[in-house]
Write a structure and sequence with these properties.
Distance between the termini: 11 Å
Oligomer: single chain
CATH class of the largest domain: Mainly Alpha
Bound molecules: zinc ion
CATH superfamily of the largest domain: Winged helix-like DNA-binding domain superfamily/Winged helix DNA-binding domain
Radius of gyration: 24 Å
Strand content: 5-15%
Helix content: 55-70%
Number of helices: 6
Length: 166
């Protein structure tokens, strides 16, 4: 996937469908959320929710200004297209960190599972259960986590490739 596609995917993951629509509009200048709601025919609350979600990851910013006529607070938004790659990089690095932690626990811990998938327990717990599933009585077996570990490793490699290409 290319950088642009990855950013689009990130936007829809954090800000949903509405966020993806707003982002795809490519509005370079400031805009107010109520004006946009009017133009797009989308509920203002949904637009705000999407914009705030984008703000949370650094893809949008806003300033508030009191409208002299109505006395209401107006939100002036700007989508930070210029920060897209930076935000994408940050999010990918976060995901990578999570996967690396997962890799650590998966590689270190030894698990035993029931063949009927009732339980997944540690070695000590398995001993305490006499290696018999407390639910169905089947003999619980050593879980070979090497495949799961391989998969996580692959995911990490994938992310590293993307990060190197950004
Ligand atoms: Zn069982």
């Amino acid at each position: 996937m290319k950088g642009d596609e990855l950013v689009a995917e990130l936007v829809s993951r954090v800000a949903g469908e509405i966020g993806a629509i707003l982002y795809s509009l490519g509005i370079k200048d400031e805009f107010t959320d109520d004006q946009l709601a009017l133009e797009l025919g989308i509920e203002i609350n949904e637009i705000r929710r999407a914009l705030f979600a984008m703000y949370e990851v650094g893809l949008a910013e806003y300033r508030r200004k009191k409208d002299d006529e109505t006395g209401w607070m107006e939100y002036y938004w700007k989508i930070r297209y210029d920060r897209a790659k930076l935000v994408l990089r940050k999010e990918l690095e976060k995901t990578k960190e999570k996967l690396e932690k997962k890799l650590e626990t998966e590689s270190e811990e030894i698990y035993y599972v029931c063949p009927n998938v009732c339980v997944k327990v540690s070695y000590d717990e398995a001993i305490a259960m006499n290696f018999l599933c407390p639910k169905c009585g089947s003999r619980i077996e050593f879980l070979d986590s090497s495949r799961a570990v391989e998969k996580v490793k692959e995911e990490i490699e994938n992310i590293e490739k993307i990060l190197a290409s950004l």
